[in-house]
Recover the amino acids of this structure.
């Protein structure tokens, strides 16, 4: 496993749509392991493949209470959303900053696991927010496009980064 360089806002790779994964090759398995390692190293709660420069539809998320399994989503698609939450959000590709974004409070996605078996995942609150945030990355979008008001410095606000 290895840490990968996290691309920062302004990098063209973050503004491009990602391609579907057709098969989990050894190379993709290594990418996924590296994505988890890179996310944990940066104290993030989520990371999308384009953030490490790879235009593939792969997301890792770990924002659950300790002891719960982290999430790997390959080719994720949102099936259902409901409700609304408004709160601060950050991104590992825009270090040190946060901004207020409104997201659904409930999200249901379908995705594929490491064995390319389909599954569904439901999330509320932070998990719902993280799913929406990371899936946006796969289509070349960043939360700053949705920020209400100004970005603030994290020194003024302690928030997890996605
Ligand atoms: Ni992000």
């Amino acid at each position: 496993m290895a840490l990968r360089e996290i691309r920062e806002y302004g990098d063209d790779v973050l503004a491009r749509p990602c391609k579907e994964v057709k098969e989990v090759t050894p190379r993709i398995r290594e990418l996924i392991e590296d994505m988890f390692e890179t996310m944990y190293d940066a104290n993030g709660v989520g990371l999308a493949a384009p953030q490490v420069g790879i235009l593939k539809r792969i997301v890792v998320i770990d924002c659950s209470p300790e002891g719960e399994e982290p999430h790997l989503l390959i080719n994720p698609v949102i099936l259902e959303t409901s409700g609304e939450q408004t709160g601060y959000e950050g991104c590992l590709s825009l270090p040190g900053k946060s901004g207020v974004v409104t997201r659904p409070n409930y999200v249901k996605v379908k995705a594929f696991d490491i064995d390319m078996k389909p599954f569904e995942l439901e999330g509320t609150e932070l998990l719902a927010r993280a799913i929406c945030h990371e899936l946006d990355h796969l289509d070349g979008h960043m939360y700053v496009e949705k920020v209400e008001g100004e970005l603030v410095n994290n020194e003024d606000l302690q928030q997890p980064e996605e």
Q: What stands out?
A: The mean pLDDT is 95. The chain has two helices and eight strands.
